[in-house]
Write a structure and sequence with these properties.
Elements (H helix, E strand, L loop, with lengths): L1 H5 L5 E2 H5 L12 E2 L34 E7 L8 E3 L2 E8 L4 E8 L5 E9 L17 E2 L3 E8 L2 E8 L4 E9 L11 E3 L2 E6 L5 E7 L5 E7 L9 E5 L2 E6 L4 E5 L6 E6 L15 E6 L5 E6 L6 E5 L9 E3 L2 E5 L4 E6 L5 E6 L9 E3 L2 E5 L4 E6 L7 E6 L9 E3 L2 E10 L2 E9 L4
Antiparallel strand pairs: 1-2, 3-33, 4-5, 5-6, 6-7, 8-9, 9-10, 10-11, 12-13, 13-14, 14-15, 16-17, 17-18, 18-19, 20-21, 21-22, 23-24, 24-25, 25-26, 27-28, 28-29, 29-30, 31-32, 32-33
C-alpha cells in the first residue's frame, strides 16, 4: 500500500510505489512530495476515502469542544480541504465578484496564507445546489492543480504551492447540465482530468510540469460528474471511470483502453472503489443502482442492486461495501455477491462522502451532523454523533489526527462558509 511506504518516505516517487517497472522510478518528474499525515487529493492518500493507518482523530466535538481553529472562507464551494505539508488548500467561487480561486491556509493555525484568482468572469452554475468550485484540488507537494468550468469550457490550472500560476490548459468544451465537479488525479509525471457533457467528453493525461497533453481519450456526448480514479486492481494500476452508461479502464500513463463494459447509469457522481477483484459504480440518473464489474477485462457484471447512492462515494473494507444513501440511510453489502447485510436510517440527507479511519466510519450529513459508527458487516454500531455548523456539502479530510471540515454557519444572519480544524484538546 502507498500509505505504508509513505510512513518511511516523506518524499516518494509514485512510479516506484505503484509501478511494476523499476526503470520508471528513475524519472525525476515522477517525484511526489507528500507525507503519511497528508491528504493530498480527492478521497485521500489512497484515493478511496480511507485514512492512513494509525490516524486517531477525535470522536467527539462541538462548536466549543475539540476545535483547534476555525477561519472564514470567502465565496462558495463544495470542494474538500486538501492538506499537504504546512498548508491547507481549497477551491472557491465568489459569485458576487464572479471569480474562481484557490485559497491557502496555514495548517497549524488556520491563518490565510494566500488567495490566487484563477478565473475572472464566466462562472458556470445551473443546479441550485451546485457551485462554481465543486471539485477538489490536488497537490503533489510542489504544485497545486485545479479544475474549473468557465465560459463554456473546462480548464486545468497549475499553481505553485506559493500561489503563482504556472500554466493553464483548456481540457474540453463544456455544456452545463447540472454543474461541474470533477477533481484531478496525480499519477507519476501526469495530472489526469476529465470532463463529461453534452458537448462531448474527454479524459486526458497532461504533463505536470508543462500542462501539455500527453494522451487523450474521447468520451460520449453525455452529462456525467465522476472524477478519474487510479487504483491497483486485478494486478495492475488502472485509471477507472464510471458513468456515461459504462465502466471504463485505461492505462493511466498512455490512455490505452484496457477494458470497457456496459453496467452503469448515465449520470454518476461517486468515485469508484475496488475490493481487489471488482470495481463498483453507484448512480444516479436515469437509473438508480449499485453495480459491481469484474476488473479483469472479462466484461462480467457480478451483481447489481436498485439502491440509490448518487452523490456520496462508498467505502470498501474486508470484503464489504459501506455507503450512505443520499436519503440518509446507511447500508452494508457483501462485495462479491451484493448481498445486503444491514440498513439503518441515520436522518437528514447526505452529499459528503464518508471516510474510513481504522474500523470507524465518519459520515456527515447536509445539516452538519457527523455519525461515527463501526465498519461492522453484522450490524449498525454507532459510537458517537456530533453537530458542527448548519450545512456541510464537501467531504472531510482526516489526517495527522485532525479533521478538516468545510461547512456553512450563519454569521450575523448571513451565510458564511468556514474551514474548521477538529483536534483533541491538549
Amino acid at each position: 500500500m502507498v500509505s505504508l511506504l509513505l510512513r518511511t518516505l516523506p518524499v516518494v516517487a509514485v512510479a516506484c510505489l505503484l509501478s511494476p517497472v523499476p526503470a520508471l522510478c528513475q524519472q525525476v518528474d515522477d517525484r511526489i512530495s507528500v507525507a503519511a499525515d497528508d491528504w493530498p487529493w480527492w478521497r485521500g492518500p489512497n484515493r478511496n476515502g480511507v485514512a492512513n493507518a494509525g490516524e486517531q482523530p477525535p470522536t467527539e466535538w462541538s462548536a466549543t469542544k475539540n476545535v483547534a481553529w476555525k477561519t472564514p472562507v470567502p465565496g462558495r464551494g463544495h470542494s474538500s480541504p486538501i492538506v499537504v505539508g504546512p498548508r491547507v488548500f481549497l477551491a472557491t467561487a465568489d459569485e458576487d465578484a464572479d471569480t474562481q480561486s484557490v485559497l491557502c491556509y496555514d495548517r497549524a493555525t488556520g491563518e490565510p496564507v494566500w488567495q490566487a484568482q484563477v478565473h475572472s468572469g464566466g462562472i458556470m452554475r445551473k443546479h441550485e445546489r451546485s457551485t462554481g468550485a465543486s471539485g477538489s484540488v490536488a497537490c503533489d507537494g510542489e504544485n497545486v492543480y485545479v479544475l474549473f468550468a468557465n465560459s463554456g469550457a473546462v480548464y486545468l490550472t497549475a499553481l505553485s504551492v506559493e500561489g503563482e500560476q504556472l500554466w493553464q490548459t483548456k481540457l474540453a468544451d463544456y455544456k452545463i447540465h447540472q454543474g461541474y465537479g470533477a477533481s484531478p488525479a496525480v499519477y507519476r509525471s501526469l495530472v489526469i482530468a476529465s470532463a463529461d457533457s453534452h458537448a462531448g467528453g474527454v479524459v486526458a493525461g497532461l504533463d505536470r510540469k508543462t500542462g501539455k497533453t500527453v494522451w487523450q481519450h474521447d468520451r460520449p456526448e453525455q452529462p456525467n460528474y465522476t472524477s478519474p480514479i487510479i487504483l491497483n486492481v486485478a494486478g495492475r494500476d488502472q485509471l477507472l471511470m464510471t458513468g456515461c452508461d459504462r465502466f471504463l479502464s485505461l492505462d493511466p500513463m498512455t490512455g490505452e483502453t484496457l477494458w470497457e463494459t456496459p453496467g452503469t447509469t448515465t449520470e454518476c457522481v461517486t468515485s469508484t472503489v475496488t475490493d481487489g477483484k471488482r470495481i463498483f459504480s453507484t448512480g444516479g440518473y436515469p437509473k438508480s443502482h449499485v453495480s459491481a464489474a469484474m476488473a479483469d477485462g472479462s466484461g462480467e457484471i457480478a451483481w447489481e442492486t436498485k439502491d440509490r447512492v448518487y452523490v456520496p462515494s462508498i467505502l470498501v473494507k474486508d470484503g464489504h461495501l459501506f455507503a450512505v444513501m443520499d436519503a440518509g440511510i446507511a447500508v452494508c453489502w457483501q462485495s462479491d455477491t451484493g448481498e445486503e447485510k444491514w440498513k439503518k436510517r441515520l436522518g437528514g440527507t447526505f452529499s459528503a462522502s464518508p471516510v474510513l479511519v481504522g474500523d470507524l466510519i465518519y459520515a456527515t450529513n447536509d445539516d452538519g451532523e457527523t455519525f461515527i459508527y463501526r465498519a461492522d458487516p453484522t450490524k449498525y454500531d454507532q459510537l458517537a454523533q456530533n453537530q458542527l455548523g448548519d450545512s456541510v456539502m464537501g467531504s472531510s479530510a482526516i489526517c495527522g489526527d485532525r479533521i478538516y471540515m468545510r461547512l456553512v454557519e450563519k454569521v450575523d444572519g448571513k451565510r458564511q462558509e468556514m474551514l474548521y480544524c477538529v483536534a483533541e484538546e491538549k
